[in-house]
Amino acid sequence: MTGARHDYLRPGSLEEALRLAADSSRTRFVGGGTDVYVQFCARPERPDAVISLRSIAELVGIEAGDTFRIGAMTTVQDIADDEDVRSSLPALARAAGVLGTPQIRNVATIGGNLCNASPCADLPPPLLAYGARAEIRSPGASREIALEALFVEPGRTSLAPGELLAAVLVDRPAPGTRAIYQRQGRVSVDLSLASAAVAIGLDGRTCTAARIAAGAVAPTPVRLRAAEAVLVGSTLDKETIARARAAAVAAVQPITDVRAGADYRRHLIGVFVARALDRILAGECDAARLPHRVPAPPTAPAPSRGDALRGPRRVAFALNAHAVEVDVAPGARLVDVLRDQLGRTGTKEGCGHGECGACTVIVDGRAVNACLYPAVEVGGRVVTTIEGLEGPENGLSTLQRAFVDGGGIQCGFCTPGMILSAKALLDGDPEPPRDRIARALSGNLCRCTGYVQIIESIQHAASRAAGDVR
Questions:
Q1: Co-location of 254 and 115 in the same domain
Q2: What is the spatial distance between Cα 111 and Cα 138, in angstroms, rounded to a whole number?
Q3: In which band, very low, low, confident or very high, does the pLDDT at 1 lie, cut at 50, 70 and 90?
Q4: What are phi and psi of 90, to 5 degrees?
Q5: From start to end of 25-140, where are the E strands?
Q6: How many independent structural domains does the chain possess?
Q7: pTM of the model
Q8: How far apart are CA 218 and CA 209, in angstroms?
Q9: Which of 106-115, 182-191, 299-308 has the highest mean pLDDT?
């Protein structure tokens, strides 16, 4: 995505975004872009213009009342960390907390995750289990549909040309509702091989309501209504659970591909449904198993000011505590601008798909993949690269010195990204336990496989600095 092969439009309001889409049939709305830009790399055809929704304030945020309204541009990490979501919609919070890597979660949005229409996306199953609805906007009109009706086939939604997903609506679950989300990937940050969400209402041990949804086992995320029918009105016991498991296995239509076989995926769905019901029978729900909440940056960034300019534009932002201005092509990635135009070559590019973390930088306090971050979007923001870390007398910072002393630096290629992911963690959590460090580094691949030294280096930095990791 290094060239200016499409215009990049940044409307400041929903009405302006819809008007721009109506002006041309060859435009595409973009949320966080973590899926779209990977697709652009793989496919030669691109739209004439992408319409970024990042600057539209009314699409961002979570309103919690009798109905949750989650703006389409709310990031996955913000959903995972929201206290109301964690307490009332724990299965959704869990799905958000295990989606991708920390760098992806900091940029990816709920709207983008849904409109990408991937059968293996993490957010659809719990949302379907909670009975979510989609709020869809078009010029002069608004409508609601069941979220299930949004999905048509892999990569395709029911949105008409010029429509966009504005928000996801979820009614607050009835008291006593218990919900659990489970997934299986090849590694911790892989796409789901299969996933399932189970939401159950109980009166004593009698099931009064049930919604079960599965992902990666059909062309679209699906409700498993036959399994639901087994449960409703029945006593939740081992026999009922076994019948619901069999109904779930019979209902799915998985495929065999290079990642997993159909029989294995079918088996996983049965295991997930039975395991969730067993846990619910034991009085558990996902609220007890949520990932640790990620501390927010000191000041939550507001959406950047929009513009509808076409072609290159001049972008001003703070880079390593210095004001810079640079001319940016519409399709330029942040990694290219940092390396090629600003000479910050400490930022490495490995995969170019947001998987390895070598390009990690910090934007407004959060670690992001510079290979997937549009350079035009850093206007007015604060960016930190490895060159921005500095200790006394222009020497190494405490964190950098700990990597050197502890053997965490190794070959050095992935080290800048590792250090910046660690800095983003320590800035908000100065004394994290080992498991929290490992989770923060889950988006950074070490080609030398030396994670023990890396984690120990971060622990030593935390001890030495007592919270100061400049």
A1: yes
A2: 15
A3: very low
A4: -65, -30
A5: 27-30, 49-52, 62-63, 67-71, 133-138
A6: 3
A7: 0.93
A8: 24
A9: 106-115
Asked if 178 and 202 count as a contact pair (C-beta separation under 8 A), the reply is yes
Half-sphere exposure of 457 (CA within 13 A, CB side): 26
Question: Are the beta carbons of 170 and 130 closer than 8 angstroms?
Answer: yes
Tokens 């007890």 sit on residue: 288
Taking every pair of Cα atoms in the chain, the longest distance, rounded to a whole number of angstroms, is: 72
Q: Of the candidates 306, 305, 303, 309, which has an alpha carbon nearest to the alpha carbon of residue 4?
A: 309
Tell me the angle at which helices 451-465 and 398-406 cross, rounded to the nearest 10 degrees. 140
Dist CA 271 CA 362 (whole Å): 39
pLDDT in tens, 78-105: 999 999 999 999 999 999 999 999 999 9
Note the pLDDT tens digit of each residue in 401-426: 999 999 998 888 999 999 999 999 99
Mean pLDDT calculated for residue range 140-146: 96
Who's near 311: CB < 8 A, 6+ residues apart? 4, 7, 330
Residues 6 or more apart in contact with residue 103 via CB below 8 angstroms: 354, 357, 360, 367, 368, 369, 421, 443
Structural domain includes residue 135: yes
For residue 310, is it within any domain?
Answer: no
Chain segment 244-263, per-residue pLDDT in tens: 999 999 999 999 999 999 99
Residues 150 and 266 in one domain: yes
Residue 274 has pLDDT above 80, yes or no: yes
CB 426 within 8 A of CB 469: yes
* DSSP code at position 201: E
Give the rounded percent of residues in the chain with a pLDDT score beyond 90. 77
Domain-embedded: residue 313: no
Q: Is residue 428 part of a domain?
A: yes
Helix axes 451-465, 415-428, angle to 10 degrees: 40
What's the pLDDT score for residue 287? Answer: 65
In this model, does residue 469 exceed pLDDT 50? no
Domain assignment of residue 170, given as a range: 62-289
Sheet holding 194-203, edge to edge: 178-184, 194-203, 206-215, 222-223
Same domain, 118 and 35: no
CATH of the domain at 149: 3.30.465.10
Place of tokens 């989770």: 439
Distance CA 294, CA 79 (A): 11
- Nearest partner of 112 among 72, 70, 154, 65, judged by Cα: 72
